[in-house]
């Protein structure tokens, strides 16, 4: 047999020919891509919808971040340490959502809600009650948004954010004086548990 007939069970010529044909096929498809690559939220309705939902979530997280920032001076002892930790969590949530929106090619247009309710906050208990409401609202919003998101990464992020807010609610229930039995959430916490 000739030297280019069979090598490892394959014809060297046939293998070379297949490689060249595969390369030409890939080059022919390159301008068209295999998906919606290069299309961001402005031209892809699914990414645009996801960016809009994430901007709504970002506004809530910015509001919570602002609340924790303003309320920290009211906290003493262990609740102050927890408040600092939750404020850091909120900053991480803001950063993650911002990154997700940019990853979709979306514009950041979220702003924190005006905290008019903060004028009525005068004590640690008042502040804890306020952030309890904000955390519950954020949990509900993430649970509502998750099935509406088209893209996998924002869905995963939203699920993670919901879990974080659910954990915050448990700790806040305890800080508000609930017993160990009372701080245990429902099996499917919806963020609507009343204050203890």
Structural class: mainly alpha
Helix % is 55-70%
CATH topology of the largest domain: the name is Ferritin
Alpha carbon gyration radius: 26 Å
Number of helices: 6
Give the CATH H-level superfamily of the largest domain: Ferritin, core subunit, four-helix bundle
Question: Which consecutive residue ranges, at least 5 long each, have pLDDT under 50?
Answer: 4-11, 20-37
Q: Report the top-level CATH class of the largest domain.
A: Mainly Alpha
Question: How many structural domains are formed by the residues?
Answer: 2
Along the chain, the helix and strand elements come as HHHHHH
Shape: globular
| Proportion in β-strands | under 5%
Q: What's the N-to-C terminus distance?
A: 87 Å
Total strand count, please?
Answer: 0
| Annotated CATH architecture of the largest domain | Up-down Bundle
Biggest β-sheet, characterized?
none
Average pLDDT: 82
Based on the model shown, name its key terms:
Ferritin, mainly alpha, 2 domains, single chain, 0% strand
Describe what this molecule looks like in 3D:
The structure is a single chain. The chain has 196 residues and is mainly alpha-helical. The protein has 2 domains: 1-34, no CATH class; 45-183, Up-down Bundle (Ferritin), CATH 1.20.1260.10. It contains 6 helices and no strands. It has helices at 12-29, 45-71, 78-103, 124-145, 152-175, 180-183. Helix 3 packs antiparallel against helix 5. The N and C termini lie far apart (87 Å). Mean pLDDT is 82; it is low at 4-11 and 20-37.
Furnish the topology, listing elements before pairings.
Elements: H1 12-29, H2 45-71, H3 78-103, H4 124-145, H5 152-175, H6 180-183
Helix pairs in contact: 2-3, 2-4, 3-5, 4-5
């Amino acid at each position: 047999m000739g030297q280019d007939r069979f090598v490892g069970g394959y014809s060297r010529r046939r293998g070379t020919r297949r490689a060249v044909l595969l390369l030409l096929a890939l080059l022919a498809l390159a301008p068209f891509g295999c998906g919606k690559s290069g299309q961001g939220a402005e031209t892809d309705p699914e990414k645009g919808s996801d960016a809009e939902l994430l901007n709504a979530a970002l506004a809530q997280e910015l509001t919570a971040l602002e609340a924790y920032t303003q309320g920290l001076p009211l906290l003493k002892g262990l609740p102050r340490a927890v408040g600092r930790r939750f404020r850091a969590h909120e900053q991480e949530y803001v950063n993650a959502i911002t990154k997700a929106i940019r990853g979709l090619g979306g514009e950041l247009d979220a702003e924190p809600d005006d905290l008019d309710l903060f004028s009525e906050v005068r004590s640690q208990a008042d502040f804890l009650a306020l952030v309890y409401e904000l955390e519950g609202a954020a949990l509900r919003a993430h649970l509502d948004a998750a099935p509406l998101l088209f893209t996998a990464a924002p869905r995963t992020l939203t699920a993670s954010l919901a879990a974080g807010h659910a954990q915050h609610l448990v700790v806040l229930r305890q800080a508000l004086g609930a017993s160990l039995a009372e701080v245990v959430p429902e099996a499917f916490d919806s963020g609507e548990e009343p204050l203890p």
